[in-house]
Amino acid sequence: MPTFTAPDGTALAYQVRGQGEPLVVLPGGPMLASRYLGDLGGLTAHRTLILLDLRGTGDSAMPEDPATYRCDRLVDDVEALRVHLGLERMDVLAHSAGGSLAMLYAARYPRRVARLVLVTAIPWALGLPASAEDRLLAARLRKDEPWFEEAFPAFEAWLLADADFDPAFVPFFYGRWDDAAREHNARADEGYNEAAADLYGSAGAYDPPATRAALAGVTAPVLVFAGGIDGGPSPDLARRAADAFPNAEFAVQPGAGHYPWLDDPEWFAGRIAAFLDAH
Predict the structure, then answer these.
(1) Whole-prediction pTM value?
(2) What is the CATH number of domain 3-132+192-277?
(3) Which residues sit opposite 223 in a β-bridge?
């Protein structure tokens, strides 16, 4: 697996998959190893994916200073990757929590972003967290699923009563709770760094007014992509995030959850590729 060195000396790794022009991919979680992204529904047929393992996850080394796990500090790693790849400007795709990292990168380095795709990204960097109400509203759309009666009370307790995370409600994060989703869920935490996740959005990570002001000057095309039955973010919240960019478009994949490339790979890859290839 190829590696490069971050400004503070931490060795960082990335995976290379596919063919075509490079697309730098920032994983979510926060702090999941990039392997859970797979081939992004076959997007590898259109682009060479450069899947970054954030510091302390996957095959990347642990930093000496845990404070560097904070989202705004990780921007330096993304810029170091661009320099390592020798790209003047780069296309970037970010999933979920990685969306805030991508927003902070675009705010700090607007001229280095050619195109930006934000996939089911909760816009914490804009001061827009996903609400419990949005998540529960989306969950209720699944009331006819055979697993709903067991999953919903646990999900509600997690959101409203600070209960522990319960695997029973994991199906709410997928548009279809089928064998592919079960297999994905079983492997998603491989290389995950829970301690780093706790620091990712810690105090000082985000300055929404400053980020909004900076993003208003980003001229690169942006695609904000939501899942039709995802609650975090809901399509409405994702649409509000798109408003932060002067040159953004918005797409909703019908019936998709938080991992839309699993729910309808062809729809997902086709829509993303069409945006990236537009002139």
Answers:
(1) 0.97
(2) 3.40.50.1820
(3) 117, 249
